[in-house]
Amino acid sequence: MTLKIDNVSFAYQADHKILDAISLTFEPGKFYVIIGQNGCGKSTLFNLIMRHLPLSSGLISINGKDLQQLSFKEQAQRVSVLSQSMPLPEFMTVADMVMQGRFCYQGFFSRFSAEDRTIAEQAMQKMQLTELANKRLSTLSGGQQQRARMAMLLTQQTDIVLLDEPTTHLDLKHQYMLLDLGRELAQQGKIVVAILHDMTQAALYADHVIVLAEQKIYAQGAAQSVITDTMMQHVFHVNTSRVGNEKVGIHVPTHLIA
């Protein structure tokens, strides 16, 4: 399965363009990371893929088929998204929310099967939520809620996985647990695309890094060739000096180490 963004543009207003003629191809078995300043269009791109926003121009396709031609049920069987803005019904339990991931496979009169429940239970185990299964979402911490969102995404079992700032609210242990899971999904042959702000995590996990800036793709490729002091200055307007080894480094603001 291939996800293709072809010459896509979007503007909230005629004089406020967010994305301008963006073209990208996402292939199975890879972990992609998108980075860029706040407001550069990272989440907007996800919202366009999910059809939460209308395209101004261009085409988004899955396996060559225009996304607009898919029913929302068909789309939900192919693409899932972890969003920090995803609303949580406060009186719903963790187990009930995670089961929502199986709705796109249900007929009008069908009920959840034993297989559906097994898939949901395995997802909760994977996200270390089993002991919280009967807890109301409103009683959970922000990090626990984020893990519940991820468990619901796993239950959806799609071939394309979008992670919008997935480490938000998570402590360090669970940040790396979730990113490890993203890499595991990619190794299973899925397309995984994550929006990250942590350059070190991007370098550690990404097979391919995409930098958005000024409505365009500033650069893309392997992390070592994309995440550089020059990029940090041009895109984030911070003068940095890289400290690390060949695989990964930390870009430290030069005024802190002068």
Automatic annotation (TrEMBL):
One of its GO terms (molecular function) is ATP hydrolysis activity. It is a peripheral membrane protein. GO terms for biological process: iron ion transport. This is Putative iron-siderophore ABC transporter, ATPase component. It is found in: Cell membrane. SUPFAM superfamilies: P-loop containing nucleoside triphosphate hydrolases. GO terms for cellular component: plasma membrane. CDD domains: ABC_Iron-Siderophores_B12_Hemin (cd03214). Belongs to the ABC transporter superfamily. PANTHER family: IRON(3+)-HYDROXAMATE IMPORT ATP-BINDING PROTEIN FHUC. Keywords: ATP-binding, Cell membrane, Ion transport, Iron, Iron transport, Membrane, Nucleotide-binding, Transport. Residues 3-239 form the ABC transporter domain.
